[in-house]
Amino acid sequence: MRVDADYAAKPFERWAPGDWPRTYQSPAYPNIFAAGIAFAPPHAISLPHTSPNGTVIAPAPPRTGMPSAEIGKAVARSIADMIGGAPRPTHTASMAEMGAACVASAGAHLFTGTAASMTVYPIVPDFGRYPLYGRDLDRTFGEIGLAGHWIKILLHHMFLYKARMHPGWALIPE
Nearest-5° angle of CA 126, CA 131, CA 134? Predict the structure, then answer.
């Protein structure tokens, strides 16, 4: 669904972080919001390429997990404020201003499993702030190894603990 983003067709060189949604509110229906995979990205997050057979390869941003949780919280808080009388959304969560982390585990054994762990900041590249790569390389990295596998196991158990709303669940970060 289209939201408060700039969907104008323009060349890659003119794509900007400001093109991305902030409130995820529908421009056509102010009482409808689209968080996570429900919103339509205004463009890919990197320069589109074409495969040898002509297929366009245009990577979309991650819209699940960590980014969805932050977007969902901002949308829910804005809706609550609007029910309380606010005339427009009061909270924002631009993917051009947030980072994300992902751990992809491979293998189940505690001592021989491995995982790819990565972070990216910001999710949507900002070549104005980070001219060389569009991202802060001090906050963007990837590693493969056993430590990532252990982190994945820990995150799995923390997610289930939080989902079951056990004591202190609200203290566990997204």
Answer: 35
